[in-house]
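>> received
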Amino acid sequence: MPSNTRYGKAALISAFVVGGGQIYSRRIWSGIVLAGLFYGSIALMVIIWTGINQAFWGLLAAWILFWVYNILDAYKGFRYQKPPCEKACPAGIAPWIYINLICNNSEEKYPFIPFFGTLEHICPAPCESECTRRGIDAAVAIKYLKRCVSMEEPGRAANARREKIAIIGAGPCGLSAAHYLGRKGYNVTVYEREEKPGGVLAILIPRFRLPDAMLDAEIKATLGPNVELKCDVEIGKDLKFEELLENYDAVLVAIGAWRATALGIPGEKIALSGFDVLRKIKNGERFDLGTVGVIGGGNTAIDAARSLRRQGNDVKIFYRRRIMDMPAEKEDRIEAQEEGIEIVPLTTPVEMKKGITVMTRTECTEGRKGGVEIVRDSEFEVKLDAVVITAGQWPESNFMKDHVTTDRHGRILTKNGRTSQPKIYAAGDAVLGSATVAHAVGQGLSVAEELDRRLRKVPGFWHRMVRREFLPGVRQISMHTDKKIEIPHRAVEERVKDFNEVELKAPNEELKKEACRCLTCPIKYNP
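>> returned
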């Protein structure tokens, strides 16, 4: 990646020679076009000169604006049309770039992104759903290739600033925001109600999906200079929200979504909460329940079912829509089925009794966004020793209801991260509802950037003009015809006995072959 010095030189050259900085940065055609338009218009003006008049002053103003744009363009550097994989990434990662680095054995490293390794383990990979390679055979294994990506160390922090910022929540969203703001020189204090940071990653995600050692390393890398972490402090209980508003220049709310959704059916109180089950299992508690029914189709349902299966329980998942409509990651759903967990679609409970749950059939023909209708007279009983409900969750934002505007589910309403109170910002699940870790990281970084811009009073248009793209020495890849890599897993009969990681790392040669299946869209196809 060109250094800041090179960008500065390019801008300086363009200040004296329009288009010169672009040519210096190897943007040859951009420089030629800018120079041609600028100097060509001057030459034309000389040819048709009729003296100083009103049109001349208008043209002079246009020349000045064009000259300023030329300088900013030289400073900003190369820009490209983002390919589908990059557009689809909620965390703002450019997969095609790190894949290109792998394929070309480049020593260049990808810029630091909080929880990059975590996303390799638990991201649903929307980038792969949009991969152009699908039109030929199958998407590139974009998520899995993160395993062999070398990433830069976080850069030095900027000069210290006087402003103080409080962040509520030390999950992936809050920590990502803290990382960004700390590097910008702000004094950041992160408040976490749990005993340790990490949020849902540390408390709920099973170890067979996300090993503790990796998560601890990711959190350590994300926490940096100017960031103070205060755990076991619950805002609204141990510390009043109003005190944060008094003592800090800005407050960023990243509390996640922890309030479970009730089904609203008779006997529901005898059921277990999916969050409680996962939390207790991760703390070492056993659940010898027998035959268990898990209600839901998201990641929490799959994680709870697979965790209970590892403790010797017979587990079934009941989902009110079709299997293909399940919001859980497809790979994890397939792994659950391999481990002996039956998924019963188009079924929902209507009443719970001790030892028996009354179910009914449902109809759903329009996917996840369509309605679900109950089939009349289709009730049947299922013998279950225990039921675990994982029907979704919403933010717990009551402690700040007098300061921000929320919707009926408790989600905080924002515009570019800013709430109805100018001093308060919000991001992640507190705004979106239950979403992915990639959304949390992306929201944390983008809202922190917006907060930084407002505290520095930088106009939005100027911020967009000088913002640079990361583009290393990428090269076009000769298209490989190899089939998509088969991700290695531990044998089913082994992995259901413990909580060790399920996925294994393929040899580096196989990973490079997979990387070389990338079509290098911005270079070759410019989609």
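>> The mean pLDDT is 91.
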